[in-house]
Amino acid sequence: MSQAMIGRFLDVAPEVGAALESGGAVVALESTIITHGMPYPQNVATAREVEAVVRGNGAVPATIAIIGGRIKIGLTDEELDWLGTAKDVLKLSRADLPYAVASKRHGATTVAATMICAHLANIRVFATGGIGGVHQGVESTMDISADLDELARTPVAVVCAGAKAILDLPRTLEYLETRGVPVVGYQTDEFPAFWSRTSGLPIPIRLDTPMAIADLIHVKGALDLGGGVLVANPVPKADEIPVREMKDFIDEAVAEAGRRGVTGKAVTPFLLSFLFESTGGRSLATNIALVKNNAALAARLAAALARPAS
Ligand code: PSU
Ligand code: MN
User: Fold this and answer.
1) Cα of 143 from ligand 2 centre, angstroms
2) Alpha carbon 204 to chain centroid distance?
3) Pairwise CA distance, residues 41 & 87, whole Å
4) Domain spans in the chain, listed from the N-terminal domain onward
5) Separation of CA 146 and ligand 1 centre (Å)
6) Relative to the alpha carbon of 286, which ligand is closest?
7) One digit per residue, pLDDT tens: the chain, 310 residues?
8) What is the CATH number assigned to the segment(s) 130-310?
9) Exposure of 260 in the CB half-sphere (CA atoms within 13 A)
10) DSSP SS3 for 295
11) Half-sphere exposure (CA, 13 Å, Cβ side) for 278?
């Protein structure tokens, strides 16, 4: 896209623009986790802490959201505060983005929409908590997050703690493989399950340093393979909730969503807030810890990518 085109829709924060121009390290951050993923005030506090972690690891943070139809690449403190309590904020994926921009609405970007906006701004690395995936019961609902197709088409590396264990993890991995998305485990042999470090599912590719992941991304680009890379970074051991402890809570949450007829975009936010209540806040503490852990790795990866290819 031309610079003029970008200026028509995007507002790039000065610090982010300067870093990008000088070839520096920038990490994109999503906003759905703020508006639909965590309760206030933990959402705003976490968003700020995550930005600080990115800085502390040598990169500039760019939290992405749509405000009044403008695609914001990097938010001011005031914008972040406002987003934390605003009520009329849409949850935007690829399908919703043009509507939010055209009708000048406010919107929080999911993993898919954040990847799109990051790519428009030339940002190559993005940190989140967990990606969306194939939902349990997909046979009848066909609910597959648009995050997965976005990973197949948009060249951004997404650092996450795996996919939320509320999903059908084996099918999520199958789908990513079908769509040609490299799934890289950082220092792990298993695909992590968000709150838990393990899932019992072997990781397709294991790499142990940010530089090794940067090399893979360089080669993927050079071979013109298109699409992104998923980097799965297990939650730190001290913060994890083991699978066996999480399983009953998850089954209960999924069953309750079914009983209440929760569908579509509302499913993931419902399950997250149900688990926050049923685990007495423990799921949120783990969620916050894993997002920060991902922000640190993403910053180191962005710094590794910013150096010339080896
Ligand atoms: N990870 C979190 N909390 C969240 C999400 C991810 O720790 O709230 C959000 C992301 O924005 C992701 C979205 O893209 O949930 C997936 O929603 P859906 O299943 O409707 O595609
Ligand atoms: Mn969905």
Assistant:
1) 5
2) 20
3) 14
4) 1-123, 130-310
5) 10
6) 1
7) 667 777 799 999 999 999 999 999 999 999 999 999 999 999 999 999 999 999 999 999 999 999 999 999 999 999 999 999 999 999 999 999 999 999 999 999 999 999 999 999 999 999 999 999 999 999 999 999 999 999 999 999 999 999 988 899 999 999 999 999 999 999 999 999 999 999 999 999 999 999 999 999 999 999 999 999 999 999 999 999 999 999 999 999 999 999 999 999 999 999 999 999 999 999 999 999 999 999 999 999 999 999 764 4
8) 3.40.1790.10
9) 14
10) helix
11) 17
DSSP string, 7-44: HHHEEE-HHHHHHHHTT--EEEE-SHIIIIIS-TTHHH
Cα distance between residue 4 and residue 118, in whole Å: 17
Q: H or E stretch including 171?
A: helix 169-178
Measured distance CA(73)–CA(50) in Å, rounded: 16
Amino acid of residue 58 = G
Q: Which ligand is nearest to the CA of 270?
A: 1
Question: CA-to-CA distance for 104 and 71, rounded, in angstroms?
Answer: 10
- What CATH homologous superfamily does 1-123 map to? Indigoidine synthase domain (3.40.1790.10)
pTM: 0.96
Catalytic residue numbers, as ranges: 30, 164
Ligand 1 contacts CB of residue 147 (under 6 A): yes
